[in-house]
Design goal:
It is built from 7 helices and 10 strands. It has helices spanning 18-24, 59-72, 90-100, 112-120, 151-154, 170-181, 208-215, and strands at 3-7, 29-32, 50-53, 76-80, 104-107, 133-136, 160-164, 186-191, 199-204, 221-225. The strands form 2 sheets. Strands 3-2-4-1-5 form a 5-stranded parallel β-sheet, with helices on both faces. Helix 2 (59-72) packs across helix 3 (90-100). The longest helix is centred in the first third of the chain and has 14 residues, at 59-72. The termini are far apart.
Length: 261
């Protein structure tokens, strides 16, 4: 028996990975985040599978369900939205399973920020403009941010900032980033990325807050701020440059692992 933490993707049911779908199809128990995971994905579960919506469960209750499945010798799919590596709350679940001696694996998924970038039709790393992406959030009613990870500090880098769980506090986001990025810095908000009701807002730090409030966006949204969002005049990548010496043994793509800008 194994617990499989599966990234369900940003919203569209067909953005789960092949590995995720195949794993889901053989798990007799599925715990899923009902408020975020598309219901269509549950159709991938085998007939008769025990389906458990975790939207109203606390960590103890979730852990109890995982341990129950373990005692029954049943594989468990633990479906999380996006990718388990970012803002997924899987770390504390893994810690509980480690303590109980229960085996688990992680199946990555498409993160929300990647779906948002796709909706914007933007590469977030552009040669000579920006090569750094910071994924973060702000401290409000949730867990406090560690020292040195506040927006005022992160903003000094002027890197492309991607903020999760912050649409409700867009005024605060703008106020803290304006001194570092300037009012004319491109900004965008993508709500419900990849879903039928996807909403894309484009602007600058001077007007993005008004757009967000006018659209009534308060949750399930990604805020992006940075110069690469509006970059049009930039040097071509060295990856495909005619001046680059090519070795037949070298792979063409980088797959997100990095590139020389």
């Amino acid at each position: 028996m194994t617990v499989h933490f599966i990234g369900a993707g940003p919203g569209a049911a067909d953005l789960i990975t092949l590995r995720g779908a195949r794993t889901l199809a053989r798990c007799e128990v599925c715990l899923y985040a009902g408020s975020l995971v598309p219901r269509e994905l549950l159709d991938e579960c085998p007939p008769g599978a025990r389906l458990i919506d975790t939207a109203n469960l606390d960590l103890d209750q979730i852990t109890a369900e995982l341990l129950r499945a373990h005692e029954e010798g049943k594989d468990v799919a633990r479906l999380h939205s996006g990718d388990p590596s970012v803002f997924s709350a899987v770390a504390e679940q893994m810690r509980r399973l480690d303590a109980a001696g229960v085996p688990y694996e992680v199946v990555p998924g498409v993160p929300a920020f990647a779906a948002a970038a796709a909706a914007l039709k933007r590469e977030l790393t552009v040669p000579t403009v920006g090569q750094t992406v910071v994924l973060t959030r702000i401290a409000q009613q949730a867990t406090p941010m560690p020292e040195g990870e506040d927006l005022a500090t992160l903003g000094r880098s002027r890197a492309l900032l991607v903020l999760h769980l912050a649409a409700r506090y867009v005024d605060r986001v703008v106020a803290e980033l304006l001194p570092h990025y300037g009012a004319d810095c491109p900004a965008a908000v993508v709500a419900m990325a990849s879903r039928p009701d996807e909403l894309v807002l484009r602007g600058t730090l001077s007007d993005i807050a008004d757009q967000v409030k006018a659209a009534g966006v308060v949750r399930t949204a990604v805020i992006m701020v940075g110069r690469t969002l509006g970059a049009s005049q930039f040097r071509d990548s060295h990856l495909y440059s005619t001046e680059r010496e090519r070795d037949r043994g070298c792979a063409e793509g980088t797959g997100g692992a990095g590139r020389a800008g």
